[in-house]
Design brief:
- It is a single chain.
- The protein has about 150 residues and is α+β, with helices and mostly antiparallel strands.
- The chain has helices spanning about 60-70, 80-95, 100-115, 120-130, 135-154; strands at about 10-20, 25-30, 35-45, 45-50, 55, 100.
- A hairpin with a 5-residue loop joins strand 4 and strand 5 (about 55).
- The chain starts with 11 loop residues before the first strand and ends with a helix.
Length: about 150
């Protein structure tokens, strides 16, 4: 790490702390040449590989925007959407991979969205999983009903 004051090519870490629930590391550094201190913030990068092959940084905002359309007219708050996006990011980061396919993000959205609002889940799944007919909707609804009956039995 270059010193921002004297441009010396090395520095010593004096203190390290995690922040943003462990998503970033704040390091206090000291330059051995000029003895001045400075702070760096490190984050683990997470890239999304789209169907076209283009890679871009992961964005919680894009998750929220995509899910917001499915939740239109449903009793879902912005806080609910922000928590969903956070859960999706945590799931993706837990995989340990620095690059993830956009398809994997969609799969990571389905579970938390289903818990949040089943109608929004069906809307999102119908687009994401390319439902072609009413049979596809019926199959998804049958699975939801089966899960409800299992929950009621236990």
């Amino acid at each position: 790490m270059h010193c921002p004051f004297c441009r010396h090519g090395d520095s010593r870490v004096v203190d390290s702390r995690t922040s943003d629930d462990g998503a970033t590391i704040r390091r206090r550094r000291q330059c051995p040449a000029c003895n001045r201190r400075f702070t760096t913030i490190e984050t683990a990068s997470l890239s999304v590989v789209k169907r076209s092959g283009v890679s871009e940084p992961f964005s919680r905002d894009k998750v929220v925007t995509g899910v917001r359309k499915a939740c239109q007219g449903r009793p879902v708050s912005e806080d609910d959407l922000a928590l969903l996006a956070q859960r999706v990011e945590e799931t993706i980061r837990a995989s340990g991979s620095a690059e993830v396919d956009a398809y994997e993000i969609g799969l990571a959205i389905l579970g938390p969205l289903r818990e949040l609002d089943e109608v929004a889940y069906l809307r999102f799944a119908s687009v994401y999983q390319a439902f072609d007919s009413l049979d596809d909707f019926e199959a998804a609804i049958t699975v939801l009903r089966a899960d409800h009956s299992l929950e009621q039995e236990s």
